[in-house]
């Protein structure tokens, strides 16, 4: 009974395997690629972490750097942006944890 169902399913199948063509992605220039928002947010959080000495901002910059690194499309441009954001984030963490204490705070 199951062989009868399989046979009738293949006869009624409207797909044509001979007409199937493999998908070929059209090449895109690096300027036409969508904006990497996580990389941009990482840069903003990294700069805020350094300028305003926010620890949370520096940690968020590292998280967004990792996300941007995982979703990287254009290696050359994205790697520059990610490396800059990572430098700001690390610089912010170093100044927050190893730098002198901010005036008005107790450590």
From TrEMBL:
Can you name this protein? Protein Asterix
Q: What does the record give under GO molecular function?
A: protein folding chaperone
Q: Which InterPro entries match?
A: ASTER (IPR005351)
Show the segment(s) annotated as Disordered.
1-25
Cellular compartment(s): Membrane
What family classification does the UniProt entry report for this protein? Belongs to the Asterix family.
Q: Which UniProt keywords apply?
A: Membrane, Transmembrane, Transmembrane helix
Single Gene Ontology BP annotation: protein insertion into ER membrane
Q: Does the keyword Membrane apply?
A: yes
Gene Ontology cellular component annotations, sorted alphabetically: endoplasmic reticulum membrane
Q: Give the Polar residues compositional bias ranges.
A: 1-15
**Which species does the entry assign this protein to?**
Theobroma cacao
């Amino acid at each position: 009974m199951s062989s009868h169902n399989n046979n009738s399913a293949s006869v009624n199948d409207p797909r044509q395997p001979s007409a199937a063509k493999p998908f070929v992605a059209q090449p895109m220039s690096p300027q036409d690629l969508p904006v990497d928002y996580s990389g941009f947010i990482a840069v903003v959080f990294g700069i805020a972490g350094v300028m305003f000495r926010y620890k949370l901002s520096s940690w968020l910059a590292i998280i967004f750097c990792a996300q941007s690194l995982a979703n990287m499309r254009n290696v050359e441009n994205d790697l520059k942006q990610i490396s800059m954001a990572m430098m700001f984030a690390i610089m912010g963490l170093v100044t927050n944890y190893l730098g002198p204490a901010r005036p008005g705070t107790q450590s």
